[in-house]
TrEMBL record:
GO cellular component, one term: endoplasmic reticulum
Main subcellular location: membrane
Membrane topology: Multi-pass membrane protein
Protein name: PRA1 family protein
Record-stated family: Belongs to the PRA1 family.
Keyword Transmembrane helix on entry: yes
Keyword Transmembrane found: yes
Protein's job: May be involved in both secretory and endocytic intracellular trafficking in the endosomal/prevacuolar compartments.
Subcellular compartments: Membrane
Parts of the chain that traverse the membrane: 52-71, 77-98, 143-159, 165-182
Pfam families hit by this protein: PRA1
Keywords linked to the UniProt accession: Membrane, Transmembrane, Transmembrane helix, Transport
Biological process per Gene Ontology, one example term: vesicle-mediated transport
Amino acid sequence: MDWSNVTIDELVDALKEVEWSQPPRPLAEFFAKFTVPKSQSKWDGRFKCNMYFYRTNYFILLTLVLVIAFVRNPLALVAVFLTALNLACLNDSFAVTLSEKLTRAVRRISPPLAHKLRAPVSTGTRGRPLKGTVYICGRDRRLFVGVLGLVTAFVWWYSSALLTILVALLIGITLPFLHASFRTPNLKARLNSFREEFRAVWRGYSDA
């Protein structure tokens, strides 16, 4: 298979359809041999072949870099979690469910406080008012999301979470890029590419 003739769109489509549950390639093979490509076409074919063949290794490498970044800066992970929570609270079903779970948890510790966290009497059932306003812990969702948004913005600023994530992504993308560019495709990679090409052709005949 001539990987230099494969377009980026075709490579992306192949990575979407391919099986990602396969185990990563051994480290001895992953770091076996590196050479500088002799031409642009050689680099193009090598890069696409390695991206396809070592996809699991690259995914693990990116994940490992992000984990290390969050271990070194735990507040960055807190910032990401608060952002996800803030966005999720914009969904009515999630907001109502969150309010119920928080109220139930507080009730086990302090029933009087849980009573104060209930939605106003003028609302309908399950914390949803008759006019459509959603309450979280007895407060208008807009107020809850606004306060949570301010806290989230402060955590992002205080922890330099954006810088942490950007640097981690830069490293996590650069390392696979360099490996795919300089790792010489071995016989297994070439045989694997021919096998995948045969499977694609066979699927084409089966669908016809």
